[in-house]
Design goal:
With 465 residues, the protein is mainly α. It contains 22 helices and no strands.
């Protein structure tokens, strides 16, 4: 038995994702918490029949793999583990740290290490997963050496991935948002030019702007709030025979550069010449495959690794990422369950009624935030909330770029705060820190950005009426 769209679950549609979050906080076991939430959701969807709920849970896992983008994303995650393991096994990480220590004294500091992750996050705006992955992989050894905790690194990676991709939308994010806006224009819900409206919304993307500013404050002013005060740096292991190791950045940088370059190339090819129409999941999937092939051709003939050791590292890296892959599978499944429960529709229903136009941008931001937090997806939130927000905005005669920005900011804030978000999972993976600890230590900073953004949307709603 599956979901009947005519059924209305009301408050239960919000209770299920909240239960999952509470379980994660109590048990500190993400997989068990996700499975508990999914089972509870299927209980509701299947008239409280536990046998049907049990079957639906495990059949639902298998059904996920029928969608190409999900299979590619999961393969991307496990193969990223291979890249990280091979960089360590080949000595690329040690060589890179020694090189930075000798050649760039300003970078070889706690501020320099964090700023390196921040700058990488800003420069690489092609795809949020790649942004977090590269920033974490490159900056992690330097952070360990200079006493920066993995939790703080994960926070920096997470906070410069989605926010940057939304502020510089020359990527798949821009393609999705533009498509949603153009659809509303074609349907005569709103009027104007899609590109112009998207560009005009950027200055109102308050959460992303505040988040990037807060991260800089954390880096330069050493702002530690909440659980981040108690995060403990991973002890740096001094490299033996450091004098015998060649100080070079190339073994570390070249594979990553190849992977990063392949993303826009993949977007161009899958979009048949239009990078905005390309497939993000396909692009990152082939980017990581090409990077692994490059590493083999670079490391094995160059006698950096033997053929046998290359594949040992490849398989060990895949094994290391299996827990992360499982988290992603169950995160995707609970997203589908929450969609079937009608969480987003119920939240949107709460907006209906006599609402002051001044308050509407703030309320759109809040509802988009709750939706993204509950579902763990900013893209899904955009797809659900953008048509609703634009219709409300047109009806209430609001400033449309502000409405667009409220949806985007809310989607990113909720996604940034959610333990079941893919970017949150990948950021903790890239920094190699405990996932629950990453969520706990990041949440106070995300809430600070959310409060500031809420105030900004309230003011902007008043000024634009």
């Amino acid at each position: 038995m599956w979901y009947n769209p005519s059924m209305e679950y009301g408050i239960l549609s919000i209770a299920i994702p909240l239960l999952t979050i509470i379980l994660a906080i109590i048990t500190k076991d993400v997989i068990v918490s996700l499975m508990g939430g999914i089972f509870a959701g299927f209980l509701v969807l299947n008239a409280y029949n536990p046998i049907d709920a049990f079957i639906a849970l495990f059949d639902g896992v298998i059904a996920l793999f029928s969608e190409g983008w999900i299979a590619k994303t999961l393969l991307f995650i496990v193969m990223v583990g291979s890249i990280i393991r091979l960089l360590t096994l080949s000595g690329a990480v040690d060589s890179f740290v020694i090189y930075l220590s000798k050649k760039a004294k300003k970078i070889d500091s706690s501020i320099g290490a964090m700023l390196l992750a921040y700058i990488i996050g800003v420069i690489i705006f092609i795809e949020s997963s790649i942004t977090a992955l590269v920033a974490g992989t490159v900056a992690k050894p330097l952070c360990d050496k200079n006493g920066v905790s993995r939790e703080k690194l994960a926070y920096i990676c997470d906070s410069t991935s989605a926010p940057i991709c939304s502020l510089i939308p020359l990527n798949a994010w821009g393609a999705l948002l533009l498509g949603l806006i153009v659809t509303a224009i074609d349907s005569q819900v709103i009027s104007g030019d899609g590109v112009s409206l998207l560009i005009a919304s950027i200055p109102y993307n308050f959460y992303s702007l505040f988040t990037l500013a807060i991260v800089l404050g954390v880096i330069f002013l050493n702002i530690n709030i909440g659980p981040m005060k108690y995060s403990i740096p991973v002890p740096y292991v001094v490299v033996e025979n450091e004098a015998d190791i060649k100080a070079t950045p190339y073994k570390m940088i070249l594979p990553i550069v190849v992977m990063v370059i392949m993303v826009p190339v993949g977007l161009y090819l899958t979009g048949e010449g239009d990078i905005f129409k390309g497939s993000g999941s396909t692009s990152v999937y082939y980017a990581v495959i090409v990077a692994l092939l490059f590493m083999y051709l670079y490391f094995v003939p160059g006698k950096i690794l033997t053929h046998k050791n290359y594949f040992i590292g490849l398989y060990e890296g895949i094994g290391n990422m299996i827990p992360v892959g499982m988290i992603m599978v169950f995160a995707l499944l609970i997203g589908k369950v929450i969609g079937d429960l009608g969480t987003a529709k119920y939240l949107a229903h709460l907006l209906s009624g006599n609402i002051s136009p001044v308050l509407l941008p703030l309320l759109i931001f809040i509802v988009a935030s709750i939706t993204a937090f509950s579902t763990g997806t900013s893209w899904g939130t955009f797809s659900i909330m953008m048509p609703i927000g634009l219709a409300l905005g047109a009806t209430m005669d609001l400033h449309i770029p502000l409405v667009i920005a409220a949806v985007i900011s809310g989607g990113i804030f909720g996604d940034h705060s959610s333990p079941i978000s893919d970017t949150t999972i990948i950021s903790s993976m890239a920094a190699e820190c405990d996932h629950v600890e990453h969520v706990r230590t990041q949440l106070p900073y995300a809430l600070l950005g959310g409060v500031l953004a809420s105030g900004a949307f309230l003011v902007a709603g008043w000024l634009t009426i």
